[in-house]
């Protein structure tokens, strides 16, 4: 029965296309890595990959693949249950204990993804009498999680500590019972690190709990990869850490919350994405356990990643590109105009370099960019080839 809904949606899609904002998924015909095989329908070709969250290069690590295979043989393919009915294997508790111990927290709870962890973490912990103070650049899943929670919402401009203090004062003046400051550890579009020492100082002054989403840091930043609390020297002062198993820690899937025992215990009782969604698949849990074990000891890979990041930043700056400065492996190459960002991405694609252009609404208008990400899976020769391709394409398009 035609209701007109499909026609209406077709119009919306046409508008997205007309605005130059339509996202097309390119196909990869093989595993994730420093180089990938790109499929274009006629065949496949190799490309250097500069846009994966595969910071330590663990996404196709042979020991992790083997651990996942062994896990599947010993524990089966799927659980066909949520955790509290019959979906908790020894593997799941082992992984939770390992995450908690790694991050120096009392306990941890797994979710299907960090998107679910962030969607589920706020609502059980805080009520209408409470306040959540959120950085304006926080990840979409934090924004959604806060929307699902009855606590009063306060927002501060990214990294603006005076604005944060104003909002803490406002929450106080409004009589908030508990206050929680929520921030990304690394802001993924710009690649900069949250000012955690200042945030913790303010939070302590105003009696607030700090929650850090460390998806773009756990495993590769800080001592032993313990993330931004370690990198910025505030370990032990962050009350709640959320993170993903879908980036540095093997790149499979799954998310978690690590926090105090009462927080984790209450989330097991009340977090809706935990209660009403399937358990992590055994091979995924087994692979993640191995990934964390490898990441903890991977000072060599972290050193390679940091070297690559410095080298790429230096040479791209010398070539005349405008980068956003920072100390993470997220290195945005600013183009400003959305169409030119897409042209540069296409020119790089033609030169065997796989990148993604980011433009409005993901970043502000006139802040379009190519967001590059370094990986320990890349060789220096591959990075050199990528820089040459950038230089060649940038000159051809008049960007440098
Ligand atoms: C990637 C990311 C998420 C989502 O993680 P998934 O496990 O992929 O759902 C949440 N927050 C931040 C900051 C992220 O970068």
Describe this structure in words.
The chain is of the alpha/beta class. The protein has 2 domains: 26-56 and 299-396, Aspartate Aminotransferase, domain 1, CATH 3.90.1150; 62-296, Type I PLP-dependent aspartate aminotransferase-like (Major domain) (Aspartate Aminotransferase, domain 2). The protein contains 15 helices and 14 strands. Strands 4-10-9-8-7-5-6 form a 7-stranded mixed β-sheet, sandwiched between helices. The protein has a 4-stranded mixed β-sheet with strand order 1-2-3-12. Strands 11-14-13 form a 3-stranded antiparallel β-sheet, covered by helices on one side. The model has no long low-confidence stretch (mean pLDDT 97). It binds pyridoxal-5'-phosphate. The site of pyridoxal-5'-phosphate has 14 residues, from helix 5.
**Secondary structure tally, helices:** 15
The percent range for helix content is 40-55%
> What distance lies between the first and last C-alpha atoms, to the nearest angstrom?
55 Å
Which stretches of 5+ consecutive residues score pLDDT under 50? Answer: none
User: Structural class of the helix and strand makeup?
Assistant: alpha/beta
CATH architecture classification name of the largest domain = 3-Layer(aba) Sandwich
Estimated share of beta-strand residues: 15-25%
SSE order, one letter for each helix or strand:
HEEEHHHEHEHEHEHEHEEHHHHEHEEEH
What is the rounded Rg? 22 Å
Ligands present: pyridoxal-5'-phosphate
CATH class of the largest domain: Alpha Beta
The name CATH uses for the topology of the largest domain is Aspartate Aminotransferase, domain 2
EC number: 2.3.1.29
GO molecular function, one term: pyridoxal phosphate binding
Subunit structure: Homodimer.
InterPro entries: 2am3keto_CoA_ligase, Aminotransferase_I/II_large, AON_synthase_class-II, PyrdxlP-dep_Trfase, PyrdxlP-dep_Trfase_major, PyrdxlP-dep_Trfase_small
């Amino acid at each position: 029965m035609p209701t007109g809904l499909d026609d209406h949606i077709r119009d919306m899609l046409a508008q997205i296309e007309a605005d130059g904002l339509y996202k097309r998924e390119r196909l990869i015909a093989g595993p994730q890595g420093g180089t990938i095989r790109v499929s274009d329908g006629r065949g496949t070709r190799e490309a250097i990959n500069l846009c994966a969250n595969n910071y330590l290069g663990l996404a196709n690590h042979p020991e992790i693949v083997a651990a996942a295979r062994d896990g599947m043989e010993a524990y089966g393919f799927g659980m066909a249950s949520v955790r509290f009915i019959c979906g908790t294997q020894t593997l799941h508790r082992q992984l939770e204990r390992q995450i908690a111990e790694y991050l120096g927290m009392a306990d941890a709870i797994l979710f299907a993804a960090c998107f679910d962890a962030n969607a589920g973490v706020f609502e059980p912990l805080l009520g209408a009498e409470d306040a959540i103070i959120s950085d304006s650049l926080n990840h979409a899943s934090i924004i959604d999680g806060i929307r699902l929670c009855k606590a009063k919402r306060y927002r501060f401009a990214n990294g603006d500590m005076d604005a944060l203090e104003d909002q803490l004062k406002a929450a106080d003046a409004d009589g908030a019972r508990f206050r929680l400051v929520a921030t990304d550890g690394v802001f993924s579009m710009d690649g900069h690190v949250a000012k955690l020492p200042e945030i913790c100082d303010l939070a302590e002054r105003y009696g607030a709990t700090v929650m850090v989403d460390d998806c773009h840091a756990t495993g590769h930043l800080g001592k032993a990869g313990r993330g931004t609390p370690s990198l910025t020297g505030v370990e032990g002062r962050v009350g709640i850490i959320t993170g993903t198993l879908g980036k540095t820690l093997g790149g499979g899937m799954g998310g978690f919350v690590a926090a105090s025992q009462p927080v984790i215990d209450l989330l097991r009782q009340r977090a809706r994405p935990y209660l009403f969604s399937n358990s992590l698949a055994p091979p995924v849990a087994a692979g993640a356990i191995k990934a964390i074990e490898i990441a903890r000891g991977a000072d060599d890979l972290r050193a390679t990643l940091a070297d690559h990041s410095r080298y790429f930043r230096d040479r791209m700056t010398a070539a005349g590109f405008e980068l956003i400065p920072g100390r993470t492996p997220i290195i945005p190459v600013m183009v400003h105009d959305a169409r030119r960002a897409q042209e540069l991405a296409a020119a790089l694609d033609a030169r065997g370099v796989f990148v993604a252009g980011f433009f409005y609404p993901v970043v502000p208008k006139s802040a379009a960019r190519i967001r590059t990400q370094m990986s320990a899976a890349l060789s220096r020769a591959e990075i050199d080839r990528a820089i040459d391709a950038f230089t060649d394409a940038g000159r051809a398009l008049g960007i440098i």
